[in-house]
Give the backbone structure.
Amino acid sequence: MSKISLDEFLSMRISQRCQYFSENNRLLALVYAQQFDRPLLSNLFSLADAIRRLSDSRDGRLFLRALLADRRAMLYFTQPSTRTFLSFAAACHILGMNSSNVRDSTTSSEIKGESREDSLRIFSLYHDLIIMRQPEGGFCEQIAFQMLSWPGRKPIINAGAGMDQHPTQALLDLYTLQRCFADSGGLDHKRIMLVGDLKRGRTARSLAYLLTNYSGVELILAAPENLAMGEDIKEHLRENSTPFIETDNMQPYLSKVDAIYLTRIQDEWDQGAKTSMDYSRFGLRAEHLKSLKADCFILHPLPRRQEIETSIDADRRAVYFDQAQNGMWVRAALIAHMFAVDEKIISHR
């Protein structure tokens, strides 16, 4: 790999930066949702399915647990998390990896003035994998770039960065959709509606990137005008010939879509006082269910607030709790891929 400076790296187009984090068709680091192409997605989903099947038996679980028993992972989560943290911890356990965690920088030497860069370099001395979630956009890619020049070239996984990227959430969302549509031709030629805070919701942004890998997908982007999808995502959709419609009224499209992906309003990013705007028009209520197709699936990355009434949980089309569990399987598949034990899993009988 050629030696370049961080400034030179950051000046590259995103497609070039993605290439920097891969070698011999294997991810060295996962930073961007754009690193996933369709062949890799297909391989990871097949791998996740294999891990699910093996986990159904004691012998299978013991086989999986021996694969990475000599490896250690650091979960560096300085931003609040429930599902992402626990599913990564479970994924490590499935593959036999021991894990450590820092969930509050005030419990580390950062409180003494140590830089995050130095903290992460120390973590890389004790661990074989860094899984990182933090609120600052751009920091994960800088660290991932630097880690490839440190001794050992330890891999890093972006588990959520600022308002920009959450590639493994998009991976599990896509895996869930693929399973939902398994009997209807897969994801190709489906119409999917993304609803809510699309400007700051990194889960919806990352999912939009991944959906461009599928033929004939059409997106409905339903959001308040002040929280509409960013121009960077819309430009990516145009470049990849993925048609989309923007609207501030989701109701006319309820009967026309194959899946609805709801998100909450990301008001933790608001500066000062919270907005008093009424966002109830961007929630799904029981009365809406009769408008949906019989095979229209309802997803949400969680946590939810008022976006989905709890009475909808019993509807067979509501798959958001399955979606959360899928995070464990697909993140285990990703780790297995990065440590090159995927073929052992696929070929195990």
